[in-house]
Amino acid sequence: MKPDFAFPYRLYLVLSEADCRGRNPLWVAEEAILGGVDIIQLREKHASNDVFQKKATQLKAVTDRYGIPLIINDNLTVAMAVGAFGIHVGRQDIPPSEVRNAWPDCRLLGYSIERLAQLQHSETAVADCLGVSPIFRTATKTDTIAEWGITGIRQLRNLTGKPLIAIGRMNRENVADAIRAGADCVAVVSAICATDSPRTAATELKELINNAI
Ligand code: TZP
Ligand code: MG
């Protein structure tokens, strides 16, 4: 199916301080933006609300400067408090319908899809876009169910008009395949955060994505 709307983001950075090799995540974010990242999600699994909100406020100052949307992972309180662009939730988090009720101003509501049956759930219908999670097993997130693989993207593309975000060990070797299979966007952690030059990494990924469209 064709996507319900033209998803305006191609390269999506998922940022956690722990994945930045001791470097300042704000520096990583800015370098990644300068390299071509279109959208950034802050994902801080172990931070308290206060710490998460402080990091989100600091990051929003950077993303605002470049007109880049900031998405908050899981935490609705933080997302609303900092005036984020949106939120990304998974099956163990606050359901998308509750996000909509509590936060009508949310401009991008992402939901992770981990198995095919989830496509039929009413909560999936509420989301603006779907994280296809994971495309490949990754050390960055180990509590995943099964790999979709590139064929999984193709399968989902045939079944839903929701914009699809491919995530999970996406890198220079496979981003073009994901786009050609029907992903609208590719999300990465390590392929940008764990490299010596996040800016160069983002530039290379963006070029590969653009050439595959
Ligand atoms: N959700 C599914 S896989 C993943 C998330 C947050 C981590 C992706 O990290 P990497 O390093 O790009 O494989
Ligand atoms: Mg989650």
Q: Would you kindly provide a brief summary of this structure?
A:
The chain is of the alpha/beta class and 213 residues long. The chain has nine helices and eight strands.
Describe this structure in words.
With 213 residues, the protein is α/β, with parallel strands linked by helices. The protein has one domain (11-212): Alpha-Beta Barrel (TIM Barrel). It has nine helices and eight strands. The chain has helices spanning 25-35, 49-66, 76-81, 96-102, 122-126, 149-159, 175-180, 190-193, 198-212; strands spanning 11-15, 39-42, 70-73, 86-89, 108-113, 129-132, 164-167, 185-188. The longest helix is centred in the N-terminal third of the chain and has 18 residues, at 49-66. It starts with 10 loop residues before the first strand and ends with a helix. The model has no long low-confidence stretch (mean pLDDT 97).
The SS-based structural class is alpha/beta
Total helix count? 9
User: CATH superfamily, please?
Assistant: Aldolase class I
How far is it from the N-terminal to the C-terminal residue, by CA? 16 Å
Characterize the biggest β-sheet.
Answer: 8 strands, parallel, barrel
Question: How much strand content do the residues show?
Answer: 15-25%
Binding site for 2-[(2R,5Z)-2-carboxy-4-methylthiazol-5(2H)-ylidene]ethyl phosphate: 138-140, 189-190
Binding site for 4-amino-2-methyl-5-(diphosphooxymethyl)pyrimidine: 41-45, 73, 112, 141
Pathway: Cofactor biosynthesis; thiamine diphosphate biosynthesis; thiamine phosphate from 4-amino-2-methyl-5-diphosphomethylpyrimidine and 4-methyl-5-(2-phosphoethyl)-thiazole: step 1/1
EC number: 2.5.1.3
